[in-house]
Structures
1.
Amino acid sequence: MKMFQNTITLRSYPRGFHLITAEVLQALPQLKEIQTGICQVFIQHTSASLTINENADPTVRTDFKMYFDKVVPEEDPDYKHDDEGADDMPAHLKSALLDISLTIPITRGRLALGIWQGIYLCEHRNQGGRRNLVITAWGI
């Protein structure tokens, strides 16, 4: 059994959905040493999230942002938690609706993503800042 782990800090992204597959792969070059295994990608934040989805057409990212902004609007008078501004509680809710951790199979030293799949950073804050990811891979 082999196990590798690396923590990376992503640059600051604007609010929206951003493909980060390349950054994840660059962070763990040892992935090539695993023939069959699992890769977990975990974000250490409560106002951003991760997902896997369409990696080719950028309108998917635009539509994701539009949808989540409609479903979880800012300025809702029922929100109590607004310590960091109008996007504070909506960012936490959007993160809870998506996920903070992804589990991806490893096959023959590569992530077993489908041809049209990519890893997204879902930035829910207007000024989210740099985001930390812990990337762990294990297998044989």
Note: Residues 54 and 114 are 9 Å apart (CA to CA).
2.
Amino acid sequence: MYKVDFPKDFPKNFLWGGATAANQIEGAWDIDGKGLTTAEVVRKADDRKKMSMNIVDPSSIKAAINDSTTANYPKRRGIDFYHHYKEDIKLFAEMGFKVFRFSIAWARIFPNGDNLQPNEKGFEFYDRVLDELENYGIEPLITLSHYEMPLALTQKQNGWLDRATIADFTRYTEVVFKRYRGRVRYWLTFNEINTGTWGFHETGVVDSHLDKKEQENVRYQALHHQLVASALATKQLHEIDPKAKMGCMLARMQTYPATCRPEDVRAAQMEDQKNLFFTDVQARGEYPEFMNRYFAENGIQIKMAEKDQEILASSPVDFVSFSYYMTTVTSAEAGEEVNGNMATGGRNKYLEESDWGWQIDPIGLRITLNEMWDRYRKPLFIVENGLGALDKLEDGKVHDEYRIDYLRKHIEQMKEAIKDGVQLMGYTMWGPIDLISFSTSEMSKRYGFIYVDQDDEGNGSLKRIRKDSFYWYKKVISSNGADLA
């Protein structure tokens, strides 16, 4: 009789933790030699459900530079992690974190992006953060570029559209890898790299004056340069610190067909292919044939250097990470759309939605874990997943059973995927402490297990308060996912 044992629980070395980004938590935007970043010139949104980025053009950048306040640019203040990191990491340790995902602000290390010497004050801050994590035995997972880059590179060479930015980035990654050799085992190059198809926030490219066809060509060209830079950084890491691992990071947008009509199924397949294209390149080392056809049929011409394909093929990533917040529905015909985390698609009548219109689909996480494992056969890491909600502080407490319910259902599906045979490394929910929203730059959209006393205008004591979910997640980690009650 053929009998095979299958895993029934989370692996013993499973990495439980939380994820953040420098531009959403650090603050201290203009001290200790840090340069201005692209994230700090994007105005806060006017409509929390549209999820569209405000238009960035030379005039808006100039206005932002001339505005030395944080009123319209909340990412400049974050939640002042820069001065509260010890307190915050202590709280993460109290929950039992095995890993903490954070990003290094490129402009703290190289204020203009192309400086020849790094800013030592910037390094000293991250030295202290790593010291604190080591005190509690928490693994760092570091993102090298998380929706920000030195603004000076946009002004000088229009961000990633210029091939020169590859050399600027790899100069930055080299000094970072050498500085933290032996101290950091897990790295990511670009956060949600596929969202670069939406423009400035990921690529630092000003293209608002172009028509849609020209924008698409420019964005894919800039993203090609990022893909090359990612491969070069992966090669650097393997040479500088052979025991360390590099991962890629995707905003996973699982797409369902609206009906079983073949036309709808094909439309959904094409959307998924475009979503997974970036991970295909980073994990497999080559441009997939379906995108070569897409480029040809849509007049997109990618300028490649002679050795680019060799570079991509020589250094695939070690593991595949992704964010997962929602799924969408696609039809061959136009229909009602919803928005979330840069994903747009049809409304699914079988799913509930968050206050921000994001469709909640725990089973979709199991589906995407299985599909990505089958596609790449590399360890997977869920590095973002969470519920943004309008939390209420009542009598010094936050009773967020809705968040516990959301996370419980997603973790249950993670466990099912592990039983399916998926090799899952870890889970860093977004974000373990309330922070500034990426898409809207508001504070009201709260994800954390820890409440931060700050409103959308920046008023408040910045006091940290444990929510009910704090104690629940502590129990989940201590039981290695066995106790989800």
Note: The CA atoms of residues 22 and 105 lie 6 Å apart.
3.
Amino acid sequence: MSIWRVLLSIVCPPLAVLDKGCGSIIIVFILWLCGWVPGVIAALIILNNPNR
């Protein structure tokens, strides 16, 4: 996980997970609409997962 991905996940979480698949983008986008913090946390968790 690069520093640019971390910064992008703080600014706009759905953009940070673009290459992780459609499901991840949708989940992060919905959480981001519910609140900024849940979207950021979800994006960081998805980016930190080595299996995806």
Note: Residues 22-34 form the longest helix (13 residues).
4.
Amino acid sequence: MKRPIIAVTMGDPTGIGPEIIARALRDSEVLLSCRHLVLGDLSAMERALAITGEPSRIEVLDHGMPPVDDRPDRIYLRPLSYLSPADMVFGAPSPASGAAMYDYITTAAKLCLAGAVAGMATAPINKEALNRAGHHYPGHTELLAELTGTEQFVMMLAGDRLRVALVTIHEALADVPRLVTFDRVLSTIRTTHRDVNRYFSANPRLAVLSLNPHCGEGGLFGAEETRVISPAIAAARAEGIDAVGPLSADTLFHFAAQGGYDAVVCMYHDQGLIPLKLLHFDDGVNVTLGLPIIRTSVDHGTAYDLAGTGKANFRSMVAAILMAARMASVRDRGQGKGEP
């Protein structure tokens, strides 16, 4: 079976994206698992190779895809921007670089939807620059949902020991209680079950967390557990989904990290990402569930303090590419881990 082609988006050219891509594409497991097509800026990629000292050579592909017999010393790049030096200052993203980030993402999504590539793995972007360029999205996830016409999507962060899915994503903590609704919790459980079942583990067991300490302590610390979360879990179980809870976050992760659950449904961003990054700081992967395409990403930001030094850890980029390739292989064999 041919190795799948993964589109790798450069992210913010003024951050560490080009450097971690340059290093990740030399990883032996990546080379064995997939072919790649980098969508980005030629000058930024050339600069990254000079900084990292990687002996790769860039092969520009304005059209077409990398060959089946691709070479391990090549980076196959489709240039989508030609930024000026003023727009490539490390740690100083501009509207022009924000527009470039948008073009990398949208092109990758279109290639995925057309079946030209098997999936996409994304380097980190600067959300402020994206918005300054006129593209008003809080992040990759929401942009890709719009591009693919997806209404029900879930952000999941994953590593070998733990997967966490989020009911609310980038929201102020003060707004979370009103956003944790029956429909939103149930939708998150459904989407997580479907795609974990499809790509990772058949008939997955899901842990669903409480919002309040000690599951609300019988209403003393809040009523969301009895009013919203428990009914949503009951509805999911009535559909045949193996979801249990609500469970207290202060104890649950101990058991989840030991393999007791295939994924944990969390009510808000830091509830899930703190334990995930404690275990998978260097190799965590952001996976967008619910899309008609495969999309993975690094689980970190642009790291401007490291940009240009060649010292940024590239393991999360490696993990994101590998996970996209494995998900594509499962899907393209026509036999997911479970039923789609």
Note: The longest strand covers residues 74-81.
